[in-house]
Each structure stands twice: as structure tokens, then as C-alpha cells.
Amino acid sequence: MDNTSHMSVSGWSCADIPLPTHPENLFCAGTYSKVLEKVAQPAIDGAAIHYQTRVAEIHGKSTGPNGTVRIRTTDDQVFEFDEVVVTCPLGWLKQNLQAFSPPLPDRVEKAIQNIGYGTLEKVSPPSHHPPYP
């Protein structure tokens, strides 16, 4: 049995484990929350995180002084960061592409405009037998 047959991601680091020869055999016990915690930890430790902050404009590194990203909020506060992670609803993003300066690349804007969203309906036929052994 090789070291990738039953791999847990608890305490995992990319440098600790060689890449498996057959990625489809990679097994993750539990959820990915431990992986996300490990990946996010450097940002959480060394970053200013502003939750529940409404952003009006995002000025990229090419427009910010000293190569920083400049953010203006809806209440006219201005913040400068080395890097920024932006999360927003797709509907807002589609309607507010002008919030990015310089504009996002054409291929990215086109991809955003072409992403669809709506309701998801699932149909599950009744069965007296479970679909698994």
C-alpha cells in the first residue's frame, strides 16, 4: 500500500507529500475545512480583513501608488492593500464591472457576462432499493 491510498488532509502541506501517480486514488477523510484553514492562516495572521464592507471602486496595482490595490467603499473610506480577495454575488458583478480600474481583461468580462444562474431543479424517481450496495 503506497502513502496515497488512505491520505488524510489534516496537517497537510504541499511540501510534505509527493504527488500521487494516480490522482483518482487520492482520498480525503472528512471535510476540506482543515485544508482551507491551513491555506487561509497566513492571510488571517498577516492581513487586515474587512468583513461586511461594501466596495464602490477597486483600483488595481497599476493605478495605485506604490503598486498597491486601492479600495474605495460606499461610505468613502479608502484602503490600500498589497493584495485583495473580492467576493460578491454574480448579479452584482455583472452589473458593476465598471467598479474595476483598470477594467478586467475582455476575456474575463465576457466570461462573467456569459455565466448564467437561476433555479436548480432536481428530479429523483422513487425507489424501494437504495442506489448503493
Global morphology? extended
Q: Oligomeric status of the shown chains?
A: single chain
Biggest beta sheet summary? 4 strands, mixed
The DSSP helix count reads 3
CATH topology of the domain at 47-114: FAD/NAD(P)-binding domain
Strand element count: 4
Global Rg: 22 Å
What is the ordering of alpha helices and beta strands? HEEEHEH
Main sheet: strand order: 3-2-1-4
Low-confidence stretches: 1-17
- Cα-to-Cα separation, first versus last residue: 25 Å
Strand fraction equals 5-15%
Tell me about this structure.
The chain is of the alpha+beta class. The chain has a domain of 68 residues: 3-Layer(bba) Sandwich (FAD/NAD(P)-binding domain), CATH 3.50.50.60. Helices cover 22% and strands 12% of the residues. It is built from 3 helices and 4 strands; from the N terminus they run H-E-E-E-H-E-H. A 4-stranded mixed beta sheet has the order 3-2-1-4, with no helix packed on it. Strand 2 and strand 3 form a beta hairpin. The longest helix has 14 residues. The protein starts with 32 loop residues before the first helix and ends in a 19-residue tail after the last helix. 1% of the residues are buried. The N terminus is likely disordered.
Overview features:
133 residues; alpha+beta; FAD/NAD(P)-binding domain; extended
In short:
The protein is of the alpha+beta class and 133 residues long. It has helices at 33-46, 90-95, 106-114; strands at 55-59, 69-73, 78-81, 100-101.
